[in-house]
Amino acid sequence: MMTNESKKVRVLTALCVSDIMRVCAPEAPIAGDEAMRDVYELFLDALGSLKSIESEEFEAAKSLLVNVANIGLCVPMLDLECAGAETLVRDLFKVLLDAVNAANSTTVTEEISKVLSTMIEESSDEDTPVPSDVTFEVLSRLIDPVRTENPASYMLAGELVRKCEHQLHTPIQTFLTQAMHGLVDEDDALASLSKRHVDIIEEIAVCDPTALVTVWPSVTDDLQADDLSTRLRAVKLFRRVFAYEGSTTAEDYPHLLLEFVRRFNDKAVEVRAEMIKWSSKFLKTRVDPNAALTSVPAATVMKQLRERLHDFDDTIRTASINALCDVLDKPTSTEIFPHDLVLEIGERIKDKKSGVRKTALKRLCIAYRAYAQRCADDVPAWEMKRFDWIPGALLRAITIPDVRLHVVEPVLAMLFPAKMSADLRSTFWLRALNLADAFTVRCLKHFLLAKSRIQADMREYLLLRSKLSKMNKKEGDAALTKIVDAIKVHFPDKQKAKTAMMALHAQKDGNVFRCIQTMLNPETSFANAVKAEEDATKRAKSSSQAVDQEFIKTLLLKIQSAPFGREHVRGTLKAACKATRAAQTSKNTSTPQGVVVALEHLCILAETFPKLFSGCGDEIDELLDANDQLTVTSTCKVVSEAAAALKVTPRRGSIWEKLKVKCSSGDRKQAKLATKALGLLQMDLDERIDATDIIAGATAGQLSDVYLHIVELLAEDLVADSDLPAVLGAVGSIGTLHQQIFMLQLAEVEQYVVHTLLTRPPPTGRIAVGVVSDLATLQAYGLKALAKAAAHRSAADTVESSFTTRVIELLHSYADIDSYKNDGMFAEYSGTDAAHLRFTACKAMLGISRNAAIGLVKPDAWICVSMFLHQCESATMRREMVAKLKSGLVVRPGERMLSMMWAATLALALVDKDKSVRDSANDVFANWVAAQRQRSAAIAAQAATKKTNDDPSQKFLIVHMPEYVLVYMVFLLTRHPLAPKTAEEGMEERGQKWRQVQLIMSAAISSLTHGTNGDAIPVTCKMLRRLKTTLDKVNPGNSDLIYSLSDLALFLVVDQAGTKGWDTSKFPGHVVYPAQLYKTTQFMASGPPAKEGAQPGLGDYSHLPRGYVIVRSVPIASTSTTTAKTNAKATQKRSRSKSSSAATTSKSAKTLKQTKLSFAAGTRAMPERTARRDAVVDVGDRDIDNEFDDEYESEDDYDEIDANTALVVVSSPPTSPGPLSENTTAHTQARKRKVDKAPRASDLDEPMVSAVDPEEKRSRRRRR
Question: For residues 942 and 228, what is the distance between their CA atoms, to the nearest angstrom?
């Protein structure tokens, strides 16, 4: 029966035998080990039938299992000693563990667990461990493939580990410890599992972490090992244990987690990288957005990841960003992911490594898109705080050199889910822009401007493509090359873009270009634009002509209007209207922040994409009726920018009438914007309005009619003072934008402003100190209106030029400080009103000087405006004046700019008493110097390409150098209130009267020479020396002051050159001066004699006070330069008396750095006999006389005048050395020989002298 062929018979036989053994227990009914072995083999064969619950033998096998489990029938198996009995126990575990499965687990698992746990308990004691083969059968079920294929067996093995902890833990711990160090015997039954010890530790850590108590110390020791591979192995082991789903090891053994997370700071990059890989998986199982508190392990890991954002290795920083953003992409609480941590990730956009920056951009974009998707319906305030700043940060990234638009554009395109509606997108954008600062707004403008430019270029290309068939090949190829060159600049790789664009042009499928045309159409919706983009990409890919797919995708991305298309504009306008209506209903007097942000954003869009506003007349018309003035002002600005698109709206007539009212009443800013909008909305000469349009209200008039109506109101004096700012603002705006219309009523406007408004008597009532009166404010508006209308270039002897001249004279009278003195025409004005009117007149003069013809602003007017920076008491006004000068001096290429004389005006503020004004002026002056230097180099390069020997323009290249401003400064500073009134006064007290003027000049020279190599020093010295061959054209009696100041400036330049070790040799080129300021003479001016009876001084420093000392505002620094050493050696050859003041100065006293100029005899005459042992003072032997030698030039060339540039030529060598620039130096023999450097003032008492060669002395005598 036991060997019957029938499986069923054998199972039933085994059941019968088990029943007999159950009945006879505890006595054994079967004797002999061999017989018992056969019985147990029969049992094992029968228990194998448990696998299939549907088999006929299952019930009998189950009954057999129950008998075996209840009375422990298999326990005697452990005592058998016959052949073949040694494998019975292992076979029992194998059969039963394999028998359990998902189908029968609920039926047999309990009995099998009882049988196996009993066998484990009986097979071991204190001296005998569980057999290795039994341990093998249990552990092999904890890992794959059993773990995956038979989860029930896996669960049963885990239960055995927990239930038999006293018997199994020790052999498991021993095996794992040996396996980690490769010490498992090859003959051991567990040898095949030694290579998978990490998998086993991972599973045991889940089912029973206590089984690893003695294993952890060995692993933690490996974490601190010196060997990198050992640490990596330990890290990978812990990584799997802690990150395993369902494992609570991190919570149960916090000391292990703490030891493990220290590897985040490991010195090896590989270890830190493994830790970050683990953290991402670990946090996914530990972060619960609904939990009230964050788990301690998760918080610990997040803290370490945050620190790794600042790791010195860029790959670790990148991995940290990815790990943190993996968490951020999912719903998280502010406990685990606070706002400041998100900001810290955003700071990585400015990382020094390009890969980190781009990763931060893309991951923040993904996180924001996930936020927008999950919060589309309801956005919690704490979520808004964490995420709404991200779009602004992405926009600011366009200023990063290797990011720019090429990286930001694709990121912004993916910022929202593809299926999100345009209204929702607009809502999210407005919330983001609500947090934007001024810099972010500028970045947004730049982004939109770049997009508008490439759209314009592509429209021009499509237009050209449609005309190419009608053009000859040569013209067509030239035009095509030109437009392709314009398009390629929008891409990072310009050459590659040009090649790809030509390949796209070769496409014969016209549908590709129709798709591009569709995307360029501002009327196209977002959905249709997406379809056109997909269609164009698909067609270009399937075309037979090879087209760069990356290029076509980038091109389509750049030209699409998203994310700021027409639907966005409509959605933003609707949101603004809705918020405005809500505010009016609630009677809220303040402007809602949402309306402010929306309208500011719309203003930016109107500046760059005005066509997007077509069809938006209803919303614009509603916003113009708002009670809030800020809303109306912003709406007027939108209309003024997008008026061309609003001309086709049915609401055009209604908008026209409302804007017309704004021109004659209300706010001044609204009136100016309304005037600009009316000029664009007015009817064209050939425009026709049909009856349907009239009914719809799409009618408009002419701006000239509006202007005529305003002038009539002014002429009849029907405008109230409250409305006068708006009216004058409208008049000034018309004069700026439509001068021809303004000139139609010039006499009436000029009559009202000059003879009515400006002649009103000042108020006699008491006004608070520092408050400008209403009359002065209105009069300032009148001056501005006239100045704006006069700021146009016009031909000479025309009505326009005469009007401009009259306005300049009027402004001069108001800018002159003498007009407000006791005997002046405006003496009755208060100090505040006088300052306000002067300030207005000065700014208006700057505007006219920038836009009108050169030369209209006379020197007296220029001096008057310049002195305002010194005479004005208000630091705010001086700061605004500097800002006004900046807007005219530092401009973009192609824009009109102020002439160089206004840079001299700016220089007056370099030593302003207010630090903010002084800092601002220094920044503006430095920026102007840099920009002017670039312009000068460009002009010189252009002149070099067309240079001829007799080209008269070559002699005027010098006027474009920034150093030429010193010529204007010399003229201007002689009129400075702190300058001496006469040359004799300047000579007194060793030139004390020149101190303040010298500080201004020193500041300007320092800024001019900063960052250069001194190449412009020779030409600068010649400019200053040659001033002694000129006269003050405005006031000839002032010429001696010009000579003194030119000597002072020359002294400062030479001193600066000596300090830097620069060359000060002669410059052989031409020198010219402004004809308005200077008149040339045929002789060099001579200075006063050194003493009575001596000959007049001639040459360098002849007009400078004897013993003049340069005083600087910085403490003396101890130096040991070559120049100082050279001077010290030279002075050892002769004894000099020390100054008494220096002798009494303490060493610890804080002194000023000085350079002293001492004259033994400031003259060309031979010195007295007692002085012949010392050198004649003539610094560096750079004689002015040498430049009059007949081998250089003749004095007959000094009267040459260039009428085109209004400059006087005062020196003209026979041949020009080449194109002149600020970096060009004279190539003379003086440059090849060693030139004595100007001495430094390391010793305050040492006079500045220079030894003269004896041969040179004899040469001088012969020349005399």
Answer: 64
Let me know the angle formed at the C-alpha of 559 by 555 and 562, rounded to the nearest 5 degrees. 120
Interatomic CA distance for residues 783 and 837, integer angstroms:
9
| Rounded Cα–Cα distance for residues 1236 and 1226 (Å) | 17
Q: Which residues contact 1147 (CB under 8 A, 6 or more apart)?
A: none
How far, in Å, CA of 1126 to CA of 1123, rounded?
A: 5
CA distance 764 to 762: 6
Q: Averaged over 76-80, what is the pLDDT?
A: 84
- Contact between 601 and 648 under an 8 Å Cβ cutoff? The reply is no
C-alpha–C-alpha distance, residues 183 and 426, integer Å:
66
Helix (H) or strand (E) holding 1039: helix 1039-1060
φ/ψ (deg, to 5) at 283:
-70, -25
Residue type, 865: V
The answer to whether 864 touches 812, Cβ cutoff 8 Å, is yes
List all residues 6 or more positions away from 16 whose beta carbon is below 8 Å from its beta carbon: none
Res. 420: pLDDT tops 80: yes
Cβ atoms within 10 Å, residue 1117: 7
* Mean pLDDT across 31-54: 86
Question: Residue 285 corresponds to which tokens in the numbers above?
Answer: 């199982």
DSSP string, 407-462: HHHHHHHTSS-TT--HHHHHHHHHHHHTT--HHHHHHHHHHHHHHHHHHHHHHHHH
The sign one gets for the Cα dihedral 1150, 1152, 1155, 1156 is negative
Give the gyration radius of the chain's Cα atoms: 46
Q: Read off the pLDDT of residues 1163-1206 as tens digits, 9 standing for 90 and up.
A: 333 333 333 223 222 333 333 233 333 333 333 333 333 333 33
For residues 1156 and 1199, what is the distance between their CA atoms, to the nearest angstrom?
37
Rounded to whole angstroms, the Cα distance separating 622 from 851 reads 38
Distances 641 to 431, 602, 611, 637, 646 between C-alpha atoms, Å: 24, 10, 10, 6, 10
Length of the chain: 1264
Q: Spell out the residues 6+ positions from residue 173 whose beta carbon is closer than 8 angstroms to its own.
A: 211, 212, 213, 214, 215
Virtual torsion, Cα 49, 53, 59, 61, nearest 10 deg: 20
Q: Does residue 1233 have a pLDDT over 70?
A: no
Task: Compute CA distances 1025 → 28, 551, 552, 1182, whole Å.
Answer: 133, 60, 62, 10
Local structure of 1079: helix, strand or coil:
strand
Q: What is the distance between the alpha carbons of residues 25 and 428, in angstroms, rounded to a whole number? A: 81
Rounded distance, CA 980 to CA 994, Å? 7
**Integer Cα distance of 230 and 843 in angstroms:** 76
